[in-house]
Amino acid sequence: MKDRVHDMGGRDRFFGPLPPIDPDEKPFPHEWESKAFALALLANRVSGANLHAFRHAIERVPEPDYLSGYYERWLASAEILLLDSGVLAPGAVEARARRLRGEDVEEPAAPEAHKPDMPSGGGGNLRTVDQPPAFAVGDAVTTRAEMRAPHTRLPAYARGRTGTVTALRPGHVLPDTAAIFIGEYPQHVYSVDFTSRELWGDGAEPATVTLDLFESYLKKAE
After folding, report:
1. Residues 26 and 73 in one domain
2. In this predicted model, what pLDDT tens digit does every residue of 144-169 receive, in sequence order?
3. Segments forming the whole domain that contains residue 162
4. For 138, left (φ over 0), alpha (ψ -120 to 50), or beta?
5. DSSP per residue over 83-143, as a string?
6. Which DSSP state fits 155?
7. Is the domain of 110 the same as that of 201?
């Protein structure tokens, strides 16, 4: 599976160094952005989705739309969620926009909703994991290079890289399965330290990068 546009960590073809944060920047510089924010959150609820499915939807926004702006991709992801669950018919948004422009276009009939139904182990994403952790603080671990799930929290730049476990975190719902509604499958989560040169080569500025990674992403280093 090809890595999607959202997974751009460590790539140099996008934006270059980030500009300094403007402390006086407004949360929503334009009024429509606050409406887009609210619509995306409502779409998540109406479609029966969860946080992981919302992220998965954002990852499926086509590259030109994804790169057009932050709230532009939130709007696009809201449409994807509503299409996935049958709340919207394919082409409905485009047809409505054309009608608002005065074109004589017939809107598609409303589809039959088919919202996802996945059992939940409780509110939030923290879960108890019955089996003991496979790794301990100080263990050298290597991330799995073959990870190509439709949705995963293992970034492409960290696949097949070796680091050191520095902390054991509480168990969490596994995003890879929850995003596509096949189960929560909670796992242990580990903080793993990597050197920047392990991730990006000898030319990288020396630094330590810490990632919180699910147990299934890791194996003992050889």
Report:
1. yes
2. 998 778 999 999 999 999 999 999 99
3. 140-220
4. left
5. HHTTSS-TTHHHHHHHHHTT---PPPPP----------SSSSSB----SPPS--TT-EEEE
6. -
7. no
CATH number of the domain at 153, please: 2.30.30.50
Of the candidates 214, 192, 193, the one whose C-alpha atom is nearest the C-alpha of residue 133 is 214
| pLDDT band for position 11 (cuts 50, 70, 90) | low
- The rounded distance, in Å, linking the Cα atoms of 93 and 42 is 16
Residue 89 has pLDDT above 70, yes or no: yes
Look at residue 124 and tell me whether its pLDDT is greater than 80.
yes
Residue 67 burial (C-beta neighbours within 10 Å; 0-12, 13-18, 19+)? middle
**CA 75, CA 78: separation in Å to the nearest integer?**
5
The enclosing domain of 34 has a CATH number of: 1.10.472.20
Q: Write out pLDDT tens, residues 20-43.
A: 888 888 889 899 999 999 999 999
